[in-house]
């Protein structure tokens, strides 16, 4: 299309003021209905202890007016096609993935490597960086399950929790070091992945989503209530912190600082933690990129496209799904171990359904199983979430609305192209619009 | 002509969906190295038979035996659907074309060789460390893919997404993909549907080519009578789930019962008409 | 024995509430094949609307119980239906025809948004309502455990039965019901024969929300206390009920609701209260794994 306008409706010349006003009026009436009781009146504890109602006419009026104004503008500018929301297409060479990575990914990697150097004294930024990196790893782990294999997993937090608690219990009861407990916790999580995956992976899309959600909640509730084993709501504290290959991060003479003849700074440990999570995430990424080019990775993506066709080609889809699930679980468990050691303390509150929802949102927002997309999405969502910290209550509301908005705007995610895992002559990225609805 | 051994032996196949009998006591045989066609008016149960043979439905009654050239036998009604392709080496294409649209043509063909590659990649381990044994296997797989791309004329589009191909190309890709699994029996569900006469003719050539080249036997469901009459060695005719005729294309096309079924008139009327016109 | 009967009565009342919410899930799944994640939170919004309506009526002096109850029902049904309609228009309709995960994420986002919207608008504390419908009937009194059925329980069951009858009539005898059934079986064909698919789907959401709002009013009167988080748990349980009864089947949803209500009540009464939510989730998992079509559902044949 020469002018990029793909709308079927005839484009009216000029702006349709009357139509927009009508839309705004309807929106206003709807908004009034929605807000009249909930925003217009506030329930509060009255002087006698009973509930009373406090009228808030200004809030009601402003909310309705806001909705009307917004609807008016949208109708005026977007519906008539006069203005189109820019579809952000990152130019192909910018995001093309070859074996060594691409410009965007490379830039992000370099940036990530030098963050601790730039922000050495800013503890807050370092903490946020660690948080973002943790979610990047979780996103990459779940990407194997959801992005590549197309399995709707809404209970990923279960593996995160299993990894964290396994690590904590192993470290506390056996006294092993971080580097031993970490892979062990990953293996435990992978084991749980197989255990939980086995009965459910033959379920169809939406049912799988709900069952995994149920499992996630069951695990959280069991952890919450099984006081003797997991400490219940109090969680487990006193989890040993990581050392620099044997050198503890203390101010003592046998500590890290003393060994390298540096002045002791609590930031050392934080920086080390950042590089640890960065390394773990990069391992997740490399393994995923490698597997994608191997038969198993191709089978995952083929399953996502059309499972019935896969079965007709002789592929044991159950085993293929289990492998994806177990691998994703392992990485989730490793991330959980990291979380445990970073905080020194874990409790069931950190492992709610919201976490699963957040990670799934990151993967879906990233788009098409793209690793780069997931990293960007994690950065935007977690970083954005932190940035809005001052807004307190409102930030969750904005988060929820943003999820809706982003899905409506870009249902396929940020990165809307897929890179083939093998090519005969020339690797050409596949645009999202080619992809039909995945058949169930 | 010396009789070729049997590759598919269907005996008393019956499929019931609740109260509806879709396939009623069907028995027929397909011979190795031949093209066998199943035809019949719409609703005759052809696709149901197919789905039973290829493992997507569990037959209510009956036995479906696949017999390999080396004598090994497989009871298809007992195997899981993926095992039918993996062990019994029976492949299929679909009426509604099921490709992997977001994957390239080449990738589609590579996925078809999954099982072989998995073994050669040491179930991923060799592949993970890029050992030579895997790299060799992958190269061989690409070669095989290239061979079939040439056969179906899609070499130039190897790196294009499968969803981008024109309809005829997608059909040919599906056939090539099924052949990449190295089957002894290929089942095609209305392969000529939606093709124009020239493409249909080319399809017929392709099918003959496949049989001549690889010795794979073919089983087809088709409505295009020209194609069926042209390429088939043997035709089985179904109507309302029952077999009403079986034989060579010539025998079947002159059978009054078959004509009656297609025209929807009584068999006796056809005979009268045929006698009159003789 | 008397204890058991009491639990039976309690379970049926609770189950009716779950059933009403479950119908919303099952209808939406039947018609557009998607799980309306936000439905539980629409129910929650309904409880707040009911609460505020009650308080408002009391404030302006309408205290006659039947009148107040009727007015609150009407108001709650109308406004909650509006919420249901809005959710569909904003979060689902733009994504219709898009790939599977997008509406699910959108729904989760909507659920989060609704929860926090209420939390901001009305505060995070639990909200109590003074008991409005009191009194009960003693059924069995042998000197041991006294079996009672409270008025509110009677009202819940009667209202549910009435609604089920009306609703079944709507689905089977009206044009709307016909359109809904047609759309759920084959959307494209339905639109080709002249069914306004968009409007039918919207009305499905509206009806589902309206029914849930009746559950909201009943819940409020039965438990007397609400908070912004009840939507999530109630939603999961109601969805479990819908799946247990057979997703896509309306009588199944009600049957599932009653079963879940009974199971939950019995479990709390005879085993442990803390793990009762685990019981609900476990049932969900077990049903989905072993009996995904539920009790009254029709098994789906894979289209090859």
What can you see in these coordinates?
The complex is a heterotrimer of chains A (440), B (278) and C (304). Chain A is mainly alpha-helical. Chain A folds into 2 domains: 17-79; 92-434, no CATH class. Chain A has 17 helices and 6 strands. Chain A has helices at 17-38, 57-79, 92-95, 103-118, 123-148, 157-174, 178-200, 205-225, 227-230, 256-259, 267-292, 295-305, 307-312, 317-343, 353-366, 371-387, 393-409; strands spanning 41-45, 51-55, 236-237, 345-346, 417-418, 430-431. In chain A, strands 1-2 form a two-stranded antiparallel ribbon. A two-stranded antiparallel sheet of chain A has the order 3-4. A two-stranded antiparallel sheet of chain A has the order 5-6. Chain A starts with 16 loop residues before the first helix and ends in a 9-residue tail after the last strand. Chain B is an alpha/beta fold. Chain B has 2 domains: 1-89 and 183-278, 3-Layer(aba) Sandwich (Rossmann fold), CATH 3.40.50; 98-181, no CATH class. Chain B has helices at 46-53, 81-86, 105-112, 114-120, 125-128, 132-152, 167-179, 197-214, 225-231, 249-253, 256-263, 267-277, and strands at 6-17, 20-31, 35-39, 61-67, 73-75, 90-92, 185-189, 217-221, 234-239, 242-247. In chain B, the strands form 2 sheets. A 6-stranded mixed sheet of chain B has the order 6-7-8-3-9-10, with helices on both faces. The longest helix of chain B has 21 residues, at 132-152. Chain C has a single domain, classed as ABC transporter involved in vitamin B12 uptake, BtuC, CATH 1.10.3470. Chain C has 11 helices and 4 strands, in the order H-H-H-H-E-E-E-H-H-H-H-E-H-H-H. A two-stranded antiparallel ribbon of chain C has the order 1-4. Chain C has a two-stranded antiparallel ribbon with strand order 2-3. The N and C termini of chain C lie far apart (53 Å). At the A-C interface, helix 1, strand 1, strand 2, helix 8 and helix 15 of A face helix 2, helix 3, helix 4, strand 1 and helix 9 of C.
